[in-house]
Every structure is written in C-alpha cells, then in structure tokens.
Amino acid sequence: MAERAVAGLSNRVSRTADRLNDYAQGSGGNLLAAVTGVEKLAGGASPLQAAVSAGVSKLGHTARETFESVKESLTGGTGKGGTKKLKLTNIVEQIDIGVPIDLAYDQWTQFADFPKFTKKLEQVEQVSDEKLTWTGKVFWSRRTWESTIIEQVPFERIVWRSKGAKGYIDGAVTFHEITPDLTRILVVLEYHPRGAFEKTANIWRAAGRRCRLELKHFQRHVMTEAVLHSDDIVGWHGEIHDGEVIEDDQTARRNETEDNRADEEADEEMEEAEQDEAEQHEDEEADEHDEDQFATDEEEQPEPPRHRTAARKSPVTRRSRMSQGASR
Questions:
Q1: Which of 92, 147, 157, 102 is nearest to 125 (CA)?
Q2: Which residue intervals of 96-229 are DSSP H helices?
Q3: Cross-strand pairs, 56
Q4: Which residues, 6+ apart, have CB-to-CB distance to 167 below 8 Å?
Q5: Does residue 319 form part of some domain?
Q6: Domain enclosing residue 188, as ranges
Q7: Are 29 and 171 within one domain?
Q8: Which residue of 32, 38, 41, 43 lies most exposed, with the fewest beta carbons within 10 A?
Q9: What CATH number should be reported for the domain holding residue 110?
Q10: Closest CA to 193 of 166, 212, 163
Q11: Same domain, 7 and 107
C-alpha cells in the first residue's frame, strides 16, 4: 500500500510538473514559481501548504520585478559598462484655437502672462529677449529652470533649450493657419526628469497630461480674454537664430510697417490699373457700339431713285423728216 501511495504521488507530481512547464512556456515563465509548491508537495507537504508556498513565491517574484522597474525609473537605469541610460519622455500635443494666427502668436510670446491662466506655473521672468526663468510647483515643492530660445520666427515657430537641477524641458511650438480665423498650435516636448518627484510622476506620464491641460487653459484664455482685449496684446515680433537676436522687436515692427505701406501702395496701384483697364475696356466697347450703330444706319437708308434715259431717235424718223424738207 505504501508503494502504491508513493507511486500515485509520483504520478500526480509528474503530471503537475508537465502542465506547469507547458503553461510556463506559453505565458513567458511567470508561473514557474509554482514549481516550489510542487517540490514541497513531493516532499510530503499538504496540498494547501504547497499552494500557499507557490503563491508566496510568485508574489515575491512579482514584487521584485515591480521594485526593479520603479528603481530603474527613479535612478535612470544602467546600460552596458555601468553607464546610465538616457531617460526622457517625448510629448506631442496640438490644439485648434478660433482666432487669427497673429493673435495666437502674440499671446504665446507674452510669457509673463502664463501664470495667469496655467495651474502649476507661479512665475516667469523675461531676463532678455532670448532667456527666461521659470518657477513652477511639483507636488508641494518648487522647481526653477532656465530656458534659452535658440530659434524664433514670427508667426511660425519657437524652439528652445532648457536646464535645471531637478529636470528640464526642451521643445518647440509651431503655429499653422487653418483658416483666417482658425489657428492650429503644435507642441513637441522632450522632458528630462531628474528629481525623485519628477521621475516618480514620469512613470504615469504626468508631464504629457499636464501639457494637454495647459494647452486647454491657453485656448480658453485666448478665446475669452484675448479676443475681447486684442488691442492690449502686444507680442514680440523679433527674430532669433542660433540663440542670437537677429532682429529686435522695434526693428521688426518698423519693417512690418514699411512692408504694409508698400503693400498698400502696391494694392492702390493695382486697383488704379484695374480701374483704368476697366475704363479703357468700356471706351472700346462704346466705340464698337457706335461703329455698329453707324453701320446699321447705313444699311437702313433707302436707295436713291433711278433716272430714265432719253429714248434714242430711230433713223427712220430722221430720214422721213429729211425727205419732207427736200420736198418743201
């Protein structure tokens, strides 16, 4: 009987091991921890103890995997040779705003107004035309970082690079005119978290959700406040390339004024030319109409009456008269 019991137990363990191996191969090996419970069952432990041991082993394995994942996210991980991997998050967001492109661009360049309608920004200081200092909240802590605009083309794009002890954001924003009263804003960010809070929040992609929310705040501000007070918004129309100001705001506006004046003069000249051409065309049509009328009048005049020619005297009559004279 003992031999029969041992043989039955061995068969059950063998069948269980085969099932576990097959299942493990199909599921990536997450259930291999259950082998510990099987081994304990083979060693004489009760089925309940074997199952509990298998579950505890599996739970420990899962916990270790989770801890390693969080640790890698917080520390940045290590690559080959012990070097740290570059950990960053790419964020791409867009939003459509029902205003002209010049109004959307002018409002965006008013960086000092960002804390008025955003939630996490506390202060933006414009150090110079191309340098800014930002102060924001991350959980209950404050973070400060600096950004440098390396390229700015009015009504087209702004590209910047940043640096900060606890993390920074590099990115670009572009402006696209869909219709004269509809503008699309495209934001592309490269987020480099460094602090513990930043890396923890980056696990749940908090930066991407924050960017999406702040764009909606910007849209609401532009369509409710900027539209009503558009004359009060004075954007920066200068141009920056390679981190240097190529054209300042005053020069850019002066050139814009001259270009607008030149465009207006060109439009006036074009309108005058079109008006002269239209008048000339009307004169030509009037002349053609007069010629056609004159030709019609000539065709309608009656033909002059034909005069009858005098009848020629026949020679017989002349001879008869001559004969009569001779007889006299």
A1: 147
A2: 101-108, 114-117, 196-203, 206-221
A3: none
A4: 143, 145, 191, 192, 193, 194, 195, 198
A5: no
A6: 89-250
A7: no
A8: 43
A9: 3.30.530.20
A10: 166
A11: no
